[in-house]
């Protein structure tokens, strides 16, 4: 298991395959295992790197004052540790917010951006009432006893998820650390990266599930499309928020074709 240390925090990641680097940043209550459908399929053409963000999976816990810039700095350290030059960087859901912050501070490490069912921060993409509702729901989730803590969110799939997907999500949820999740939640609620979007100067793929209820195509994906000069929007029909799991074949094909075109 590769890992890099950033100011005392150990950040673990998986690395498979050979070719141009493709770095994958997962969403909340998940870890590198979320991208198993991608690491298994895309490694024939790319060096696929899937991290466990600080506070998740095999990586160290984070302190309560950890910031979005700190997450981005740790992701930059992973890309530098891989040492293959600027990477195609994909962020799903909350991971896309981290990837955007990475671009703000470390644009030289980014060959292309792939933003998947994501946000310019909750404050930057969602109505204030929706942000409050999500924050209150997350606080209720975090208030339960540790043995009963099982973070789940409605609207992840367009239809009933396969049984193996439920098992994977259950395992990742069981490994979620409440204090790290609380720190992440604080950052998610306050993040607003709308000012950054017009400054993005690399090819950007916006990959969305048509029926994403967490980050709706309209208005969220359209917000990105209008603001980023080199953005292309691809909508996967009949798919929800976790599009990489719900529709791995068209998802992987779209990612492959985009990265191949810009390698």
Q: Can you offer a commentary on this structure?
A:
Helices cover 41% and strands 18% of the residues. It has 10 helices and 8 strands. Strand 5 (87-92), helix 3 and strand 6 form a beta-alpha-beta unit. Helix 2 (68-82) packs across helix 3 (94-106) and helix 5 packs antiparallel against helix 7 (178-190). The protein is globular and about 45 Å long.
For the termini, the CA-CA separation is: 26 Å
| Rg, alpha carbons | 17 Å
The share of residues in extended strands comes to 15-25%
How many E strands? 8
Global shape: globular
Helical fraction equals 40-55%
User: Spans of 5+ residues with little confidence (pLDDT < 50)?
Assistant: none
What's the structural blueprint in terms of helices and strands?
Blueprint: E1 3-6, E2 9-16, E3 21-25, H1 36-42, E4 47-51, H2 68-82, E5 87-92, H3 94-106, E6 110-116, H4 122-125, H5 128-142, H6 163-174, H7 178-190, E7 204-209, H8 217-227, E8 231-236, H9 243-246, H10 248-261
Parallel strand pairs: 3-4, 3-5, 5-6, 6-7, 7-8
Antiparallel strand pairs: 1-2, 2-4
Helix pairs in contact: 2-3, 5-7
């Amino acid at each position: 298991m590769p890992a890099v240390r950033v100011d005392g925090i150990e950040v673990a990641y998986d690395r498979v395959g050979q070719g141009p680097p493709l770095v994958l940043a997962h969403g909340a209550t998940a870890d590198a295992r979320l991208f198993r459908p991608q690491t298994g399929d895309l490694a024939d053409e790319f060096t696929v790197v899937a991290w466990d963000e600080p506070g998740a999976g095999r990586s160290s816990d984070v302190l309560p004052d950890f910031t979005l810039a700190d997450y981005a700095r740790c992701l930059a350290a992973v890309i530098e540790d891989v040492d293959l030059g600027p990477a195609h960087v994909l962020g799903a859901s909350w991971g896309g917010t981290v990837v955007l912050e990475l671009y703000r501070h470390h644009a030289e490490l980014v060959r292309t951006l792939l933003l998947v069912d994501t946000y310019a921060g909750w404050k930057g993409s969602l109505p204030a009432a929706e942000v409050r509702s999500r924050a209150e729901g997350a606080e209720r989730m975090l208030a339960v006893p540790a043995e009963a803590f099982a973070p789940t969110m409605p609207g992840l799939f367009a239809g009933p998820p396969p049984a193996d997907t439920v098992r994977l999500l259950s395992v990742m949820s069981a490994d979620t650390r409440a204090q790290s999740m609380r720190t992440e939640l604080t950052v998610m609620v306050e993040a607003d990266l709308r000012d950054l979007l017009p400054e993005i100067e690399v090819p950007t793929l916006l990959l969305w599930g048509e029926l994403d209820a967490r980050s709706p195509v309209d208005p969220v994906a359209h917000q990105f499309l209008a603001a980023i000069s080199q953005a292309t929007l691809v909508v996967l029909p009949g798919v929800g928020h976790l599009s990489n799991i719900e529709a791995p074949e068209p998802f992987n094909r779209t990612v492959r074709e985009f990265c191949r075109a810009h390698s």
